[in-house]
Amino acid sequence: MKKIAYSFFSFVLLIFINGCAGYEPIFSSTNLQFKIANFSIEGNKILGNKIYSKLYGISKSTKDDQNVKHIDLLIKVSKDNNATSKNSAGKILEYKITLNTKVEIKDFVTDNEILDETIISSLTYKVQDQYSDTVNLENRSIETLINNTYQKLLTKLSQNI
For all residues of the chain together, what is the average pLDDT? Predict the structure, then answer.
């Protein structure tokens, strides 16, 4: 009886493991075949360069392919940092940081518009006891917003290319 149960369990486990063998993410960045021919960054240059470097990393992996689409890239980034709550003494307790990113992508050869997207992301963070902790929390929030913007941009780009 144990041998039958063991054999049955092994067979079911083998089927489950084999069923996952062809897993591939829906919005995989390896399917994107593009190369950045020209780019320009407006607004906050530091944040724009961070988004550009993430996109350039993907385009760099497809340089040798013949079916690569050459694109022009324009990134406009602005950052707003507003106080959302204050205590009775007027001391700020919480900030809301908003990242407004406008991305325009055009075909380099035909000058046809591939993507014209505005992505707005925001997060709130609380003021910490130490100023340096508050600055670190703000920087982590900005990195999170950049990653969110990048993921949304990849999704839109994979739908349009």
Answer: 85
